[in-house]
Design goal:
425 residues, alpha/beta, five-stranded parallel β-sheet, two-stranded antiparallel sheet, 20 helices, 8% strand, globular, binds 2-acetamido-2-deoxy-beta-D-glucopyranose
């Protein structure tokens, strides 16, 4: 029997949809989605939000979707891609005493729904992932951390887990009352120490800690474009502010080659041999540029739905002038920047570069020197290819293309042009 590729894809999709539906069904009533006055707010394949409206509404009357004071909370999203400095920006928020921070919770959605297709660009996969992601983000901004449990493997028992992705990156999850391994004087707990010393994470306590904080910040690297978030941004129950972080795609490529050694193995071969492997997965680069272009074009065209809710930050500007940029970010958020944020910047943007190499998602130390160090690591061929592929977005973001290997390696000449992106207010 012939099994066409279309049938295979359909089968795969059906199984994802079934898993997702199962997850939705398993979640208890408080997570039911209430009808929202926004046509964009569509879920999965005509999914849960189009379920019986009567039942939906009853659920909503019984259980208010969010019990917090919406006019009070700011829902901060750091929208980025891997190796663009998002951990650094996440930390700038994490250090603030009034902010509850979560590091990439969508990791769990992806590993559950599309484990083998981590770089899938299949449009239907993408829709499933986005629908699920938006639902999860909505819940998390409301401090409904139980909703996340549906995606954690193995499934948490009695609302406790030691499998929350990068739990140690969140200050609130490493300190009292969520974790009692450290006292209030242990100001900066290292991520690894938190994971080692804190007992399993009690999700009930974590959710309480979230509610205690005035604001919630989430780092997201698994949403391609700002346009994909429109439904959330327009959701009247939320008060979203998006900080979109971009970086020179040539720098992203270089950093990924160093960091994700298996996935980017062929790129390393290209660099080492000077020959582009025939089976190189070019989408690893083109996707970054397409997503940036889509996002930035949307963001900078100032659509009404983003008014006051979108800020574009270049990683390079942040590296050169971390304190000033951070103040601008807090200005945009409308929050006072506290002392601990300033102190954290001071200890983490100077000095030893070795620490940044210590682990995969380390934040940037000695950040200014790092911003253009990719120029010494990529071959001119690779840079030329990247420039051809990404020329539009390079231009739009103010990154200068080089015309020769000499120019590339001449560090007295910066490739980052001065450019101001005023938040749209
Ligand atoms: C919500 O917060 C605002 C600002 O803090 C306050 O003025 C308002 O009274 C609060 N509303 C409720 C219902 O608590
Ligand atoms: C969950 O709690 C119940 C009741 O306290 C207990 O009997 C059970 O062993 C717990 N399960 C796990 C996996 O800890
Ligand atoms: C988690 O914390 C809650 C609230 O303090 C408590 O009632 C519950 O027993 C804790 N769960 C476990 C498994 O210890
Ligand atoms: C590097 O660029 C600077 C500024 O354009 C130029 O003056 C210098 O001669 C260049 N150095 C080399 C080695 O090409």
């Amino acid at each position: 029997m012939q099994c066409s590729w279309k049938a295979v894809i359909l089968l795969a999709l059906a199984s994802i949809a079934i898993q997702y539906t199962a997850i939705r069904t398993l979640t208890s009533k408080p997570f039911q989605l209430c009808p929202v006055p926004s046509p964009q707010n569509c879920g999965l394949l005509g999914g849960p939000e189009t379920e019986s409206p009567i039942e939906g509404r009853a659920g909503c009357d019984e259980y208010p979707y969010f019990s917090f004071n919406a006019s009070r909370k700011t829902h901060i999203m750091v929208l980025a891609t891997t190796r663009s400095g998002s951990s650094f920006v996440g930390q700038l928020l994490n250090q603030h005493a009034d902010i509850f921070y979560l590091f990439e919770p969508l990791y769990h959605v992806q590993t559950t729904l599309i484990p083998r297709l981590s770089h899938s660009r299949n449009a239907a996969d993408r829709r499933v992932m986005l629908g699920a992601s938006r639902d999860l983000l909505r819940s998390l901004y409301g401090c409904d951390l139980y909703f996340l449990e549906s995606y954690i493997k193995p499934a948490p028992a009695n609302h406790t887990t030691d499998k929350l992705f990068r739990r140690g990156a969140s200050r609130a999850l490493c300190s009292l009352p969520v974790c009692d391994a450290f006292g209030p004087t242990d100001a900066n707990v290292e991520e690894g120490d938190c994971v080692k010393k804190c007992a399993s994470l009690n999700m009930t306590l974590a959710a309480d800690a979230c509610r205690e904080k005035r604001h919630v910040a989430i780092k997201v690297v698994r949403v391609p474009e700002i346009g994909d978030l429109r439904a959330l941004v327009e959701d009247p129950r939320l008060n979203i502010k998006v900080i979109q972080l971009v970086r020179d795609p040539r720098g992203i490529l270089s950093s990924r080659i160093e960091t994700f050694r298996d996935t980017y193995r062929l790129w390393r071969i290209w660099r080492a041999t000077g020959r582009r492997p025939y089976n190189l997965d070019l989408s690893q680069l083109t996707v970054v540029c397409e997503d940036f272009l889509g996002s930035v074009s949307t963001g900078l065209s100032h659509p009404h739905w983003l008014k006051g809710k979108y800020m574009l930050v270049r990683y390079e500007d942040l590296s050169r002038n971390p304190l000033l940029k951070t103040m601008e970010i807090y200005d945009f958020l409308g929050l006072p920047m506290d002392k601990s944020v300033e102190e954290w910047i001071q200890t983490n943007t100077r000095g030893s570069t070795e620490l940044s190499a210590k682990h995969k998602y380390g934040t940037v130390r000695d950040s200014a020197a790092n911003a253009e160090s990719w120029r010494l690591k990529l071959s001119y061929d690779m840079v030329e290819y990247t420039q051809a592929t990404c020329h539009k977005v390079l231009h739009q973001l103010g990154y200068k293309a080089v015309k020769s290997a000499e120019e590339l390696k001449n560090m007295s000449l910066s490739l980052v042009q001065d450019k101001t992106f005023v938040p749209f207010s």
